[in-house]
Amino acid sequence: MIEIEGVSFSHGRAPILSDISLTIPAGGVTALVGPNGAGKSTLLALMARLLPLQAGSIAIAGRSVAATPGREMARTVAILRQDPGVSSRLRVRELVGFGRFPHSRGRLTAEDERLVDEALERFDLTGLAHRFADTLSGGQRQRAMIAMAYCQGCQTMLLDEPLNNLDMFYARDLMRTLRMVADSQNKTIVVVLHDINHAAAHADRIVALRDGRLVVNDVTARVLTPETLQAIFGYRMEVATVGGLPVVLHHR
Amino acid sequence: MAGGAAHRRPLAGALAALAALSACSLFVGVGALSPRMLLDEPDAVALMLASRLPRTLAVLLAGSGLAIAGLVMQTMARNRFVEPSTAGTMQGAALGILLVTILAPGASILAKAAAATATALATTSLFLAMIHRLPPTQPFLVPLFGLVYGGVIGAGVTYVAWQADLLQLIEIWLNGEFSGVLRGRYELLWLTAACVALTWWVADRLTIMSLGREASVGLGVDYAGMLRVGLVIVSGVSALTVVVVGAIPFVGLVVPALVSRLAGDNLRSTIPLVGLCGAMLVLVCDMAGRLLRYPYEIPVGTVLGVVGALAFLAILHAGPRHG
Fold first, then answer.
1. Residue B5: what pLDDT?
2. A167 at the B interface (CB within 8 A)?
3. For residue B300, how many other CB atoms are within 10 A of its CB?
4. Which of A5, B63, B91, B210 gives B153 a disulfide partner, CB atoms 3.0 to 4.6 angstroms apart?
5. What is the CA A153 to chain-centroid distance, rounded?
6. Residue B257: closest C-alpha in chain A
């Protein structure tokens, strides 16, 4: 469970987040959506302790983000940032192996090796395991970074626009993998998404921000109405049902 | 994350080559000395213990230390084109020694090393803080800025030395050579071995650091703390080298860049190779300096200035495949 209580954040005098309070229940996929500049990445960065809290508090699985030692947090929550831009020449297997660092402190046990293999398999990286990460395409590198975060084995995962750089095949593949991981391992996954239809298809909940304020935090079906979507994105869009699934016609 | 057989083979080769070169180095010099003479003549043994052995050890310590310092510097700056002599670190160390020489002329060599480390820390921290503002899409700006920055500090050092009539000393600190190394005058360099050991100890955390601050925080690595450890390693090695033998350029640049290209950036497996190759490069250049104008010597700093600059140009020409 993620508890966010009265969080505000400003950059100089420009307010980015204003008094956000919300609770994300344990287990399941939550999509964090909103227009550009809504504060999604900032909120995620605060949850991930990449930015210092200026006001309010955030707790993940009962641990205060501000007060818990970094090592312990690294075993609680795994993060993937937008455009991680790996410039290091690490082999994919080494990179994914560093996901085990919070547990093994650099000495991989047989169990760690098994988890690395499983992560490589799960994100379709086995064939690339011995390639240097800087020789991969953007999408392959993105998958390697996600595999590393997955390999960290945390109950909570925070992913900032993980679909960046991914083609349709791997975007769908990643969302299905996240869905499966959330279901089979009861993980809490928060993912910043730009494509509302990925949220519609794979997320249990949608948290929407606009101009630094919380617009809605509810189960997916209740968010996907023309009225609510207009409140989030600022224009009216139709919601159709195709094959039993809500589809937002946001591009028309 | 162990190296595996593929990493061990070049390592064994480098180790064998370094051992052979070190053995040769012991018998290269102005005074005639051969392995046979060691058995027959007590003077030969004395020469070996007082001069040749200390000199070779000093070369090995400085070479491996500087290569490792360069590796750490490149990891911290996340840029492959920087090293202590192109980032104001060596010049900062010279500034420290100069200030101690002016303010406390009788200070011990240990005090000089401590002061040099402190000023090198300051100038390197400032360098890292400033390159933080350069656009990451322009990797060549970092070495360019470093050269200008080091040049400015170097000019300041020269000015102060000129005012204090200490220009000859500056020459000694800023152009490294090993001809003055004798037993009793190089032992401080063993501290660089401690810096190398420290690097080995934190190798995994340094590798994670090379993934950036956010990845480090995500994996529970204290990024700011590791930056401080890295700064101490870089400044410590640079200051010790400048105090004992003088600045040696390009080792910290060329060796880590080449090893990275061949074996990657997983420090746990590349540190031994970087250290060995650094020692080997400086040893070869020092022996060349001893032999090129025999019986006169060319300082190793000068030899490396030429060799290293050429290698640097080659690396620049090969391009920043990944910044």
1. 54
2. no
3. 31
4. B91
5. 14
6. A89
Q: Is residue B84 a contact partner of residue B252, using CB atoms and an 8 Å limit?
A: yes
Q: Residue A240 carries which side chain, given as an amino acid letter?
A: A
Q: What is the pLDDT of residues A141-187, one digit of tens each?
A: 888 988 999 999 899 999 999 988 888 998 998 899 899 999 999 99
Alpha helix (H) residue ranges in A80-189: 92-97, 101-104, 110-122, 138-151, 168-185
Using only the alpha carbons of chain A, give its radius of gyration: 18
| Residue B45 located in a structural domain | yes
CATH number of residue B247's parent domain: 1.10.3470.10
Residue B196 lies in a domain: yes
Average pLDDT in chain B: 88
Q: How many CA atoms lie within 13 A of B204 on its CB side?
A: 20
> Measuring CA to CA, how many Å separate A90 from each of A136, A154, B205, B319?
11, 23, 14, 19
Of B1, B136, B265, the CB nearest to A88: B265
Domains identified in chain A and CATH numbers: 2-219 (3.40.50.300)
- Is B21 within the bounds of a domain? no
pLDDT, tens digit, 9 for 90 and up, residues A77-134: 999 887 656 678 899 999 999 999 999 887 888 888 899 999 999 888 999 999 998 8
From A231's Cα to the closest Cα of chain B, the distance in A is 32
CA distances (Å), B58 to each of A26, B63, B262, in order?
60, 8, 27
Cβ of A84 under 8 Å from any chain B Cβ?
A: yes
**Domain housing B75:** 34-318
Hunting for tokens 């993105």 — which residue is that? A142
Cβ contacts (< 8 Å) between B77 and chain A: which residues? none
Q: Is A105 on the interface with B (CB under 8 A)?
A: yes
The position carrying tokens 């791997």 is A170
Q: Is residue B265 part of a domain?
A: yes
* Total domains, chain B: 1
Tell me if B145 sits within 8 A of B131, measured CB to CB. Answer: yes
Condensed to tens digits (0 to 9), the pLDDT of residues B163-211 reads 988 888 888 888 888 888 888 888 899 999 999 999 999 999 999 998 8
